[in-house]
Each structure stands twice: as structure tokens, then as C-alpha cells.
Amino acid sequence: MTIRKSKINIDTEERFDFDNMMNDVENEVEEQQAEDRLVNRVSELKQLSEDIDKATNTFINATLELESAIQQYQRAEAKLGVL
Q1: What's the rounded Cα separation, in Å, for the pair 42 and 45?
Q2: Dihedral (C-alpha) 12, 13, 19, 24: value to the nearest 10 degrees?
Q3: Distance between the two ends of the chain, CA-based, in angstroms?
Q4: Which residue of 8, 19, 45, 83 has the smallest Cβ count within 10 Å?
Q5: What is the pLDDT of residues 25-81, one digit of tens each?
Q6: How far apart are the C-alpha atoms of 5 and 13, rounded to whole Å?
Q7: How far apart are CA 73 and CA 45, in angstroms?
Q8: pTM given for the model
Q9: Burial class for 47, CB neighbours closer than 10 Å (0-12, 13-18, 19+)
């Protein structure tokens, strides 16, 4: 009976070690898959970043042009008020 109990303990420990190793392997596989998905999207994310930069620059330029037009209008309005 003691021998059998000892055998069961070894089997349980081996099973625990195996489960731990399998969990480690599964975690590594999931990490690698997540990294692969990210690497596969690098060009898409780079393009998105470039598009955002272009849109931001377009907005800034439009804002500056509008401010310039407002200043020109105010100057013209002031000249008309003087006359």
C-alpha cells in the first residue's frame, strides 16, 4: 500500500509538471501569435500614421488660411470705416 501511494504521488507530481510545461508552451504560442499579428500590421499602422499626419497638416494649413482671410477682411473693413 505504501508503494502504491508513493507511485500515485509521483504520477500526480509528474502530471502537475506536465501541466505546467503545457501551460508555459501555450502561453509562449499565444505571445508569438500576438507578436506575429502586430508585425503583420506594421505597414498598415505606418500608412495610418502617415494619413493622420497629412490630415493634420491639411487642417493646420486650412486654419492658417482662414485666419489670414479674416485678418484681410478686418483690414478692409477698417479701411472702409475710415473713409
Answers
A1: 5
A2: 170
A3: 117
A4: 83
A5: 999 999 999 999 999 999 999 999 999 999 999 999 999 999 999 999 999 999 988
A6: 12
A7: 42
A8: 0.53
A9: exposed
Cell of 77: 473693413
Rounded Cα distance between 40 and 35, Å, is: 9
Cell numbers 485678418 correspond to: 71
Complete DSSP assignment for the chain: -HHHHHHHHHHHHHHHHHHHHHHHHHHHHHHHHHHHHHHHTHHHHHHHHHHHHHHHHHHHHHHHHHHHHHHHHHHHHHHHHH-
Type of residue numbered 12: T
Angle formed at CA 49 by CA 44 and CA 53, multiple of 5 degrees: 145
